[in-house]
């Protein structure tokens, strides 16, 4: 028996070319898949920081002590604890008569100084006429002019005294420096209030609209935001800030970043920021625990 070995027929070029194309396509797809997988964690991490949430506490935007400006007899307290007042509303009224008497006296002295100045002006005119007739000397004329100037200075002093006395009358009524909520009075009516060393507080007024929230930003949020924005102003313009109330509902007004901390707290490793929110319904009150939601604008 004779055995013969057949030589394999050559594979057509068209099949080889097709095989190369298939292999190249698979290789490119695999490479792209691996590359995509390598970028996914970083991209996912960036997206994870597009919306972040951290703890916050509501604090007053403004707060002021109401202290006695002058010593006097407190006649009337014009508010009750928790009352909402507007700027310029009367809060405390002191007994008026002593201050009013000082104002009346100052006005009378002003009238007298005005009359003396008019008399001095008339004397100067008379002296000038007599000087032209050589009846009085140059020295006597200069003397009348000096007396006129003294009378003018006395009138200016009298007018200043009227202003001071009027200020004293005005200070007998103390008004709200801005709109806000009043604390309970810390003094009683019909009692003497002494300015003393300025350490007497009669009440505290707290501004509620707008109001601020102090938040504590963790380092990872801070670091992610630093990568997203080139400057502090870009960050302020590029994020939207909202509040999550204790019940889980979203506060209806958005806030704005007004101040950021310059350091991390050593113990918590968090940075303090201040966000201001409109509060027209006066829903937010100091001490309320909330959550601040920071969202990157599209």
Q: Secondary-structure element order, as H and E?
A: HEEEEEHHEEEEEHHEEEE
The tally of strands reads 14
Tell me about the largest β-sheet.
6 strands, antiparallel
Let me know the average pLDDT: 83
Characterize the overall form: elongated
Tell me the CATH superfamily of the domain at 48-62 and 207-296. Answer: Efflux pump adaptor protein, beta barrel domain
Give the helix level as a range of percent: 40-55%
Number of helices: 5
Low-confidence stretches: 1-45
Strand content: 25-35%
Distance between the termini: 84 Å
Biggest β-sheet: strands ordered side by side in the sheet:
11-14-1-10-13-12
The structural class is alpha+beta
Protein name: Membrane fusion protein, multidrug efflux system
InterPro entries: RND_pump_MFP
Keywords: Coiled coil, Signal
GO biological process, one term: response to antibiotic
Describe this structure in words.
Among the domains are: 48-62 and 207-296, Beta Barrel (Elongation Factor Tu (Ef-tu), domain 3); 96-171, Helix Hairpins (Orthogonal Bundle). Helix 2 (97-132) runs antiparallel to helix 3 (138-170). 41% of the residues lie in helices and 26% in strands. The chain has 298 residues and is α+β, with helices and mostly antiparallel strands. The protein has helices at 13-48, 97-132, 138-170, 219-228, 232-238, and strands spanning 51-59, 63-66, 72-77, 84-85, 90-94, 173-175, 180-182, 191-193, 203-206, 211-218, 239-244, 256-264, 270-277, 289-296. The model is unreliable at 1-45 (pLDDT under 50). It is elongated and about 100 Å long.
């Amino acid at each position: 028996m004779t055995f013969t070995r057949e030589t394999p027929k050559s594979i057509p070029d068209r099949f080889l070319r097709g095989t190369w194309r298939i292999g190249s396509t698979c290789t490119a797809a695999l490479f792209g898949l691996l590359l995509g997988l390598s970028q996914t964690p970083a991209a996912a991490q960036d997206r994870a920081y597009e919306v972040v949430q951290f703890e916050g506490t509501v604090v007053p935007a403004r707060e002021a002590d109401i202290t006695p400006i002058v010593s006097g007899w407190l006649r009337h307290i014009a508010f009750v604890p928790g009352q909402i007042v507007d700027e310029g509303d009367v809060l405390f009224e002191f007994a008026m008569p002593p201050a009013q008497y000082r104002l009346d006296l100052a006005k009378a002295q002003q009238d007298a100084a005005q009359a003396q100045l008019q008399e001095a002006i008339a004397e100067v005119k008379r002296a000038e006429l007599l000087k032209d007739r050589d009846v009085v000397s140059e020295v006597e004329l200069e003397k009348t002019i000096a007396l006129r100037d003294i009378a003018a200075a006395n009138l200016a002093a009298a007018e200043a005294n009227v202003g001071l006395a009027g200020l004293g009358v005005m200070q007998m009524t103390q008004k709200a420096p801005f709109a806000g909520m009043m604390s309970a009075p810390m003094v009683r009516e019909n009692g003497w209030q002494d300015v003393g060393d300025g350490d007497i507080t009669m009440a505290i007024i707290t501004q509620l609209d707008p109001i601020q929230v102090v938040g504590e930003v963790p380092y990872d949020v801070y670091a992610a935001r630093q990568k997203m924005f080139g400057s502090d102003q870009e960050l302020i313009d590029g994020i939207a800030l909202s509040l999550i109330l204790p019940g889980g509902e979203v506060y209806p007004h958005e806030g704005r970043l007004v101040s950021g901390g310059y350091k991390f707290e050593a113990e918590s490793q968090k940075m303090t920021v201040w966000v201001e929110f409109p509060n027209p319904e006066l829903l937010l009150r100091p001490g309320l625990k909330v959550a601040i939601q920071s969202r990157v604008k599209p």
